[in-house]
Amino acid sequence: MLIQHLNPLASSLFSLLAIVSLLLSFVMLGSRWLNNYLYAFAAESWVIAALSAAVGYYGNYPELYLIAILTVLFRGVLLPYLLWRIVRRLEVSREIDVGLQPSSSLVIGALFVMFALAVSYRVATVFHLELSVAVLALTVMLSMKLIGFLMLAVRHEAISQILALLVLENGIFLGSQILVPGMPLLIEMVILFDLLIVVACFGVLVNYLVTHVGTTSTLALKRLTG
Amino acid sequence: MTARDLLLQIAQVLTVLLLSPLIQGIIVQFEERVQRSQGPGIFQPYRDLWKLFHKQIVIPETASWLFWITPVVGFTCMLTVPILIPVLTNYPLPLSDMGDILGGGFILTLGSFLIILAGLDTSSAYGGIGSSRAVMLSILAEPTLILVFVGITLLAKSMLPFVVNHLLVASWPTYWAPAHLFLVAAFFILLLVETDRMPIHSSTHIEVYMIEEARILEYSGPLLALLKWASAMKQFILYTIFCNVLVLPWGLSVAGTAIGALGAAVALIVKFVLVACVVVFVETAQSRLRFYRYQEPLAASFLLAVLAIVGTQLS
Questions:
Q1: Complete DSSP assignment for B56-114
Q2: For residue A114, what is the nearest residue in chain B, using CA coordinates?
Q3: Residue in A closest to B309 by C-alpha
């Protein structure tokens, strides 16, 4: 495995990139404006692309360069552009009624990071991954997933919810890049197309919400009527 | 204990005492210049203090003894802390063993605590408002401060500021480690809170949303001068901890000669000007928020401190 024999420079570079992407997901958690979510998500995708290029360079996986380019194109440019088009068409530019204030969700996110650290220590001891970069990758992966779930739970705008889903997916992708870098190229491409479909579905959902309910908040979807 | 160390210790306190109004003046002047106005000049705080010391003292009828001792105790606290931290030398001086970072934090908090009590003591409406706001902010800032101290302790395996300073000078990987960078960011937000330069603090001081100024509104003359000087010294001390312990640990006197101490004082001013530029930039670029959004920067600071602790666990 790659992470068993890394030189110190590479492992500190990986840690830095992983922590920067965690920080960017906290930017998404702590902000109220839809545009900020979008920019933070795009930046996070670029960081993750840099991470997979770095893993490819240090671990001699040439196919990871292709994955990095695909990540930049799909997650860094195409998905944010599609979402930006949806945001531009809507009148809402921020969350109106949030379930949880941004400051409280930041504190809860911090608690999630601690929980993720505790869990990853256990996981790392079970699988004999004593290296700090492995524990860090696990921690970042778990906490980005938890942050994604938190955003899904407390945000009501349709755009925020899809971005929460994408953050969740970004977390898994980041963890897999560091922990199992030799994942087949085909699976990565399938995931990327899945994401495209997710965004398209949400575009349809937003359109439905606007035309039939007159709002983009999923709070309005409480009634089950035929 | 040699005579030179004793002199250096006295010089540390004198540096803080005499240079703190200068730093205040530099920040105010920079701010005015950024806003394209003339500014009062960097020596204005000295002139203010001189003027206030030559005025008579007016005491409210409702004031008790607490009102009298607060400026004295606050001023003394700020004279005590420079003994404990590296201001000029990067090695501990004779009395530096009296307390660690936490002890210095306690003494700083004691000063603010008494000012809060004095604000309540006169039973004026503004004093009460100011004290309640200041308590609200410090309740939220205190856990973060403790977490930052815990992070520093985990990073350097010690709570003495001198050890942290030596560690950061000695090892570049530690300096650029995420744990250290997060600690710097968290402490920077705390620095803005403690020196009243948050987005919720207004730039004009006497107005409805004032926080610090409301507590000392009833003071006048030399007592007010002591309080103002003490707050300038508090700012100087926090800047010193920020620069000499966390961000720029270089440029301190190693041997303890007179030239070295003088050079360290000059280096200190240069570092402070750098930090002041950043502070002025943040204060100018960030639009002012209403008071009830005070939790957001503090929550961010708490988060950064937690990430720093996670970082120390992984390195």
A1: -----TT--HHHHHHHHHHHHHHHHHHHHS-SSBSS--GGGGG--HHHHHHHHHHHHHH
A2: B310
A3: A114
B273 near B29, Cβ under 8 Å?
A: no
Is it the case that residue B188 has pLDDT exceeding 90?
yes
Task: Collect all residues of chain B within an 8 Å Cβ-Cβ radius of residue A12.
Answer: 173, 176-177
In the block, tokens 């110190």 appear at A8
Q: Per-residue pLDDT tens for B157-186?
A: 888 888 888 888 888 878 888 888 899 999
CB neighbours of residue B140 within 10 Å: 18
Q: How far apart are CA A93 and CA B210, in angstroms?
A: 32
pTM: 0.87
- Verify whether the Cβ–Cβ distance B299 to A19 is below 8 Å: no
Whether residue A132 and residue B310 make contact (CB cut-off 8 A), yes or no, is no
| Beta-carbon separation of A102 and B313 below 8 A | no
Residues 6 or more apart in contact with residue B214 via CB below 8 angstroms: B119, B126, B127, B129, B130, B131, B133
**Nearest-CA residue of chain B relative to A9?**
B173
pLDDT tens-digit series, residues B258-279: 888 889 999 999 999 999 999 8
How far is Cα A169 from Cα A165, in angstroms, rounded to an integer?
6
Q: Is the pLDDT of residue B1 over 70?
A: no
Taking an 8 Å cut-off on Cβ atoms, the answer to whether A117 and B298 are in contact is no
Q: What gap in Å lies between CA A26 and CA A147, rounded to an integer?
A: 8
Q: Does A201 touch chain B (CB under 8 A)?
A: no
